Amino acid sequence: MEKVTLERLLDRAFIKLNEAVNRKEGRLHIPDRTDSNRVSEQELKYLFIQEFLNCEKCNNYSFSIETPTENENYRFSNKDKKKIKPLKYPPEDRTGRCGNIDVVIFKGSNRVAIIEFKANNSGWFEHGKDFLKLANEPNQGHSLLRCFVEVYSKTDNNLIENNVAKKVYDNEYYPKASNTIFIGYSLYHKESGGYNKFSSDDNARKIIETSFLECEI
Q: What would the mean pLDDT of 87-110 be, rounded to a whole number?
């Protein structure tokens, strides 16, 4: 699977989510809440799978949910969340267990993309353990797309620059590796006055605004 195809599917899924949240359109119902724009990662994941299944170009691909990791056993323990400690996954340690990847795309029996979804600016530890799992999975003899996707209810430039970017690049649990794609979607970004999309700029070690891909898959 090409990176541009995966990204377009994610873009389409987010646009459908935005329509459901902000316009009350489509068949996905978002219940009114105190913070009416607050969504979970599950809505975006569901819409992504829907777009994937409706994509003719993806007919030769299959998918799985909550797929066990292949490379290592893990012990994700954070007993003292006030102290940041590196995650460890020694191969000789058999007391751990495999992790799970939110969505895996297959071509035949080979994995071609692995995706972790998060929502509402989750914590440093939650980011770190997903970055670790994504970076650590084997390629299976080909280029494996590794993608971390997060949807935010509300953002502004300060949040993106001083919070999200630090969780991505300065995460002392485990920072995003260069082999991992970061994509962030905001249902409302203050400076643009509407929904927005962000991606990682590894050269500048920052999160930047980026455009939606409009052309067909």
A: 76
